[in-house]
């Protein structure tokens, strides 16, 4: 291995990392699942925060009396703000040559970094389903997903684990069932989402197991067993099933705080907006405190709900 220290500038080394990033990411995405790819809105941003207007639902008002005043809406009001979150990693190396050896798109360092960024993207998007969103012209409004049984007028967006066919509590506690999927589609349709689209459902393997047991017990079609063999996303009852490790068993996580449940989320493709810097920031320099060379990698990303009428949470015991 030749010595790079004397004939390669730090600026060129930093540029080399940027140049290899795209190739590394393409290769990693062939083996590491980007759970939400193609199922959320995507944009790029630079800076600490960014405002988005009119990204939610717009309802037109009927004019019932000729000549009556048309209601006016402040164009600043339907504004939602995305805040960039910073994630970073610093790695120390004994020699400059070791850093040069990791520039390649096939290097273990670059592959591990790309996989880490993909995992972060999945984590950030999943968190956006439940997190409050800052809104309004002066960032003084807060949009929250109300943790209550589903109701259009009441604002609740949850289907309880013991739901009845009217969304109320008091039924039999269960995992994911065909009835809950139908209720989720009913809820999304009632909130004026396009009823003819295929919605998405983010869940864990446990919910797929629930459906398989139900299908066997009721002698339904087991076609989805075949669909699952490849480990890829599959579609069932009008939902794209997205398996995410973020959906896990939560102790006393239900609305009544007395039952361990999984929170699955049903949503259309425009329910979440994900933003990020075009590429992570790479910086190579010498750490005088440690007397070692270092690579600092920083990735900036954020996500928000576009509208609370586009998300339904399904509790699964």
Task: Describe the structure in your own words.
The structure is a single chain. With 317 residues, this protein is an alpha+beta fold. The chain is 25% helix and 27% strand. It has 6 helices and 16 strands. It starts with 9 loop residues before the first helix and ends with a strand. The model is unreliable at 1-7 (pLDDT under 50).
- SS class: alpha+beta
Proportion of helical residues: 10-25%
Oligomeric state of the chains in view: single chain
Number of strands: 16
The spatial strand order of the largest sheet comes to 7-8-16-12-9-11-10
**Beginning-to-end CA distance, first to last residue:** 57 Å
Cα-based radius of gyration, to the nearest Å: 24 Å
Low-confidence stretches: 1-7
* Mean pLDDT across every amino acid position: 88
Which descriptor suits the 3D outline?
globular
Order of helices and strands: HEEEEHHEEEEHEHHEEEEEEE
The portion of residues forming beta strands comes to 25-35%
Largest sheet: 7 strands, mixed
Tally of contiguous helical segments: 6
In a nutshell, what does this entry contain?
This protein has six helices and 16 strands. It is of the alpha+beta class and 317 residues long. Strands 7-8-16-12-9-11-10 form a seven-stranded mixed sheet. Strands 1, 4, 13, 14 and 15 form a five-stranded mixed sheet that branches. The chain has a four-stranded antiparallel sheet with strand order 2-3-5-6, with no helix packed on it.
